[in-house]
Specification:
The complex is a heterodimer of chains A (342) and B (358). Chain A is α+β, with helices and mostly antiparallel strands and 342 residues long. Chain A has a domain of 165 residues: Phosphoribosyl-aminoimidazole Synthetase, Chain A, domain 2 (Alpha-Beta Complex), CATH 3.90.650.10. Chain A is built from nine helices and 14 strands. In chain A, the strands form three sheets. In chain A, strands 9-11-8-12-10-13-14 form a seven-stranded mixed β-sheet, sandwiched between helices. In chain A, strands 1-2-7-5-6 form a five-stranded mixed β-sheet, with helices on one face. Chain A has a two-stranded antiparallel ribbon with strand order 3-4. Chain A starts with a helix and ends in a 13-residue tail after the last strand. By secondary structure, chain B is an alpha/beta fold. Chain B has two domains: 290 residues, HypD, alpha/beta domain 2 (Rossmann fold, 3-Layer(aba) Sandwich); 42 residues, no CATH class. In chain B, 37% of the residues lie in helices and 17% in strands. In chain B, helix 6 crosses helix 11. Chain B starts with a helix and ends in a 5-residue tail after the last helix. The relative contact order of chain B is 0.17. Classes of the chains: A alpha+beta (342), B alpha/beta (358). Chains A and B meet through strand 14 of A and helix 4, helix 5, helix 10 and helix 15 of B.
Chain lengths: 342, 358
């Protein structure tokens, strides 16, 4: 037992242990699982899929510590609801009930709390999902930064729906529902005084859009929202789980010109920047066009695009065909330089 | 010109080359763009690209890293730094780990953030890690001018600025084994200092030098210009990045640098002292100089064992030649600075080319 515990080498938790990349993985697998691991948790899916009385339930939880709490195109309230709804939707489930917990810093302005509650209310109304339980704690000034939120949610998975990266097949088309990196860049430009304006976060509840797709009986094999670590991380994770090589075309990946310019300026790669309203769909090739059409008709999918496909090759590599036609690996993500983006 | 046309012209000209040519890209941003766009893949066998000492983090001596780590432990000191410096291993630890142990360290994108913080927090001693070549030196100069203007007395810089042309001169003087045939010169640096300071490459050393932009087409066009010069036997220093670089550079930015800094010899990690290659705060501004103001405990710094960063910086070795590369030394657990910095040669090779045939 003791040897297992030694696998986690750091004697202090570093900021990178919370960035969703390889260090977070180390913390979870080498430390947390040693104490709490079980066969459901260790699947590390966005939602745990549970069998309750012969019904399949998706259950998930997420905490939100974004800084600043208000950013262009969203705020910590909207983010906390969308994040959990999207995690539930990724397992093919229809979200039913949510919980909401606040940890608030003493002295936090009531006006700001009202703004956050208002935006939570707006999203919940749009998707028609209620908050059914919650908790509120207040801590002394300077013990946390303004406000942190935790949400959890459960959803039901309709019979016959099986969405999982283990279902990915060769020739599947890989589709994204819009331009990448907008959430991360919105938060960054809202946080730092660069003078860049006009990038709205893509933060959005995508569960209804996913339901629409699944209701049509289209052959969707896997879905994942490309949050921390961005598009590149999701692709690498899925390639690893499915053990198939993916081929991605750089030119097909939608990126807003302004976002691209800001990334160039700051030395950031949009492929690794967080999204909060972008999902990657792995779709049987015969249904790819139908999926694309439905996505494009949805307000959260207007700029959807097929960005690549699953190859026959058994490997854990994602290959990027560059804009000049050469190819290289699209590496997994190592470390985030933008903490507290969600 | 269209990209395919440039590629086929490079292919065509390379057949006429009587020997293999080695071109050195001096700038880390070029190194990254070459990797990111897999440019080596489409170059003919006779055209080699070699990375040079173009990453400021990589050429910062380890004892400076150790000193900065020591400085971060001093009471009331808060350090502002660009992200890359956080993870560079010192002899014992990194700034990143010091941060988790309670040192006040903030990542920033502009030195202005540090000055603003200093004005808002007069009880803190704010130190900005001023690192970079001619591209970032004007920013540091501006922030010092603003600190002077606002009479800010709790703001300091830990100065690590270096300048590029003397390092290239040094390489060429030393070029016995390297056989470098031409240079892709740094577009951003030249936007500030102009193309003239690189003129010596063609005038004194008879080698082509092209000041290149960073998009794949820019880099390929620059390679094409170099091949034409080699075949014609007429080496010149020319600007490919004409939209941004002028022969005389940006006079305003150059004056800013000259107002604040003196040029003196400077130590480059893995290389040694290079004449006239460092920017040092003028004496009259010494009260901004963290190295002079703070009593920083001196450390016996030790270079990591078996790390070949020094030779890689000089273009004498490729990352694949280092026995730590991609085994003991990875972006998650970097040993040498070239694996840490986002512009480091090893980081670029690891990220984009580690599966390529060597």
């Amino acid at each position: 037992m003791k040897n297992n515990f030694n696998k986690f080498k750091e004697n202090k938790i570093l900021i990178s242990h919370g960035d969703g990349g390889s260090k977070t993985n180390e913390l979870i697998k080498n430390l947390i699982f040693n104490y709490l691991g079980n066969n459901i948790l260790e699947k590390m899916e966005d939602s745990a899929v549970l069998n309750l009385d012969n019904k399949r339930i998706a259950f998930t939880t997420d905490s939100f510590v974004v800084n600043p709490i208000f950013f262009t195109g969203g705020d910590i309230g909207k983010l906390s609801i969308c994040g959990t709804l999207n995690d539930i939707a990724c397992s093919g489930a229809k979200p039913l009930f949510l919980s909401l917990s606040f940890i608030i810093e003493e002295g936090f302005e009531t006006d700001k709390l009202c703004r956050i509650l208002e935006s939570i209310k707006t999203v919940l109304k749009e998707v028609n999902v209620p908050i059914v339980t919650g908790d509120t704690k207040v801590v002394e000034k300077n013990n946390i930064d303004k406000i942190f939120i935790n949400t959890s949610g459960i959803g039901s998975i309709p019979a016959g729906i099986e969405i999982s990266p283990s279902k990915i097949k060769p020739k599947d088309k890989i589709i994204i529902n819009g331009p990448i990196a907008e959430h991360g860049i919105s938060v960054l430009t809202s946080r730092e005084d660069f003078g860049f304006k006009g990038i709205d976060s893509d933060c959005a509840p995508l569960n209804i859009m996913v339901e629409e797709l699944l209701n049509q009986g289209l052959l969707i094999h896997a879905i994942r929202d490309a949050t921390r670590g961005g598009l590149a991380s999701v692709l690498n994770e899925f390639s690893e789980i499915s053990n198939y090589q993916f081929k991605i075309f750089e030119e097909s990946i939608p990126v807003n010109k302004k976002v691209f310019a800001i990334c160039e300026f700051l030395g950031l790669d949009p492929l690794y920047i967080a999204n909060e309203g972008r999902m990657i769909f792995f779709v049987d090739p015969k249904d790819a066009d139908s999926v694309l059409t439905i996505l494009k008709n949805n307000k959260y999918g207007k700029n959807s695009a097929i960005i690549g496909e699953v190859e026959q090759t058994r490997s854990n590599n994602v290959i990027l065909i560059t804009q000049i036609g050469t190819s290289r690996i699209l590496d997994k993500f190592y470390s985030e330089q933008l903490p507290r983006i969600c | 010109m269209e990209i395919n046309k440039v590629i086929s012209e490079i292919e065509f000209l390379s057949k006429k080359l009587p020997f293999e040519v080695s071109l050195m890209e001096i700038c880390g941003t070029h190194t990254m763009s070459i990797g990111k766009n897999a440019i080596r893949q489409i170059l003919p066998e006779k055209v080699n690209l070699i990375s040079g000492p173009g990453c400021p983090v990589c050429v910062t001596p380890i004892n400076e890293i150790d000193q900065i780590i020591e400085l971060s432990s001093l009471k009331d000191v808060i350090i502002f730094t660009f992200g890359d410096m956080l993870k560079v291993p010192g002899s014992k630890t990194t700034l990143f780990k010091k941060k988790a142990s309670g040192s006040s360290i903030k990542m920033c994108y502009s030195p202005n953030e540090s000055l603003k913080y200093a004005i808002e927090n007069p009880d803190k001693k704010v130190v900005f890690l001023a690192i970079g070549f001619e591209t970032t030196a004007p920013l540091t100069a501006t922030v010092i001018q603003n600190a002077l203007k606002n009479n800010v007395r709790n703001f300091y810089i830990y100065n690590l600025h270096k300048i590029v042309p003397p390092a290239i001169h040094f390489l060429l003087d030393k070029d016995k084994n390297l056989n470098l045939d031409a240079f892709l010169c740094p577009g951003h640096v030249c936007a500030v200092i102009g193309s003239k300071p690189f003129g010596f490459i063609s005038e004194n050393f008879m080698k082509p030098a092209v000041i290149s932009g960073f998009a794949p087409l820019d880099i390929l066009e620059s390679i094409l210009i170099i091949l034409k010069q080699i075949l014609a036997g007429k080496p010149e220093t020319v600007i490919q990045y004409t939209t941004v670089v002028k022969e005389n550079g940006n006079i305003f930015a150059k004056n800013l640098i000259n107002d604040i800094f003196d040029i003196k010899p400077s130590y480059w990690r893995g290389i040694g002292f290079i004449e006239n290659s460092g920017l040092f705060l003028k004496n009259k501004y010494c009260y901004f100089d963290a190295k002079k103001v703070f009593d920083i405990k001196s450390i016996n710094s030790k270079e990591p064992k078996y790390c070949d960063c020094g030779k890689i910086l000089l273009g004498e070795k490729k990352p694949f030649d280092c026995k730590l590369f991609a085994s003991k030394c990875t972006p998650e657990n970097p040993v040498g600075p070239c694996m840490v910095s986002s512009e480091g040669t090893c980081a670029a090779y690891y990220k984009y080319e580690r599966f390529r045939e060597k």
